[in-house]
């Protein structure tokens, strides 16, 4: 019952954080110049106390406008379709002509789809973008049933169906396996919304190729170990009470421990910036950790099946992956464009693991294939930052345009 104990602790300490937050607001009323050094340190202490908790609510995307050509247009969010486990969120642009419809597939990981905020905003310049906005399982009642790897793939098929004929699909990291499986299933059944293009970015299509530390950890223990040590029950205070999940706070602990010294230094820097009144520097760090500490649980079935089928047994590249009782045949992928993107310094999904999709999709014509290895970037640099905006995105945009 570790998750229950963690939640109880958070609930019991909530008044201290609320008190620190209230005191901080009062402190901001003190005139500047009044014992700045003392008040600066006190302000930093109160700020750190008030921020000493995780949030389980999705942050805002905050995409209010985007540049289309040489003009700025307003963007509004609307839910085009929804299930208990996820929403198909549409970033609707005002006064813009028809653009290629695109489904941006976000990972179902320890963070929300808002992690792809920058990716979506860049894509919005030239595309009509929808995103898989996954819901937090701790807020989903057990009566809604299970959610496994096949359910994820089925959601992608349903979401693409909502976009109409010849949509485009871009999958980031973990969901690349489900995205390729969905494309194969839709091609084999001649689905009217089969994707015109599929772009896989830093995805674990075949993790037997140059295994990373993440891959090695997944294979270091039997699947029963993951079930017994990482799966827990949603606390009784939540709507999804007693649903089995891989808790977000456990995932975050693992992420933080991989770069513990860096995170400690960042928080020490944050406290110093606040104490010195360096608001812009403090805001940069706070913005990052507001997103980083917004955590999402994973359905137990989805997590266990992903570890087993993708990282331990490598079912897709071996032609053994099943969906609703039938094999997923990647040779069925045809009459569409296929683009794969990898990062030279990616220590989560190494070079070759995503490229493997090109070898699996033998029916895709050579002139519809594109592979790009981006020099000088790690995992997140494949889909965020300057290299993504200036070097990778133009290739993706042209690829989609040619195959629309």
Features:
3-stranded antiparallel β-sheet, 13 helices, single chain, 404 residues, 2 domains, globular, 14 strands, 9-stranded mixed β-sheet, alpha/beta, Rossmann fold
Task: Summarize this structure briefly.
The protein is an alpha/beta fold.
Strand order of the largest sheet: 1-2-3-5-4-6-7-13-14
Whole-number count of domains:
2
What is the mean predicted local confidence, pLDDT? 91
Helix percent band: 40-55%
Domain PHB de-polymerase C-terminal: 202-403
Protein name: PHB de-polymerase C-terminal domain-containing protein
Organism: Bradyrhizobium cosmicum
InterPro entries: AB_hydrolase_fold, PHA/PHB_synthase, PHB_depo_C, PHB_depoly_PhaZ
Task: Explain this structure.
With 404 residues, this protein is an alpha/beta fold. The protein has 2 domains: 97 residues, no CATH class; 257 residues, Rossmann fold, CATH 3.40.50. The chain is built from 13 helices and 14 strands. The strands form 3 sheets. It has a 9-stranded mixed β-sheet, sandwiched between helices. Strands 8-9-10 form a 3-stranded antiparallel β-sheet. Helix 1 runs antiparallel to helix 2 and helix 4 crosses helix 5. The termini are far apart. The model has no long low-confidence stretch (mean pLDDT 91).
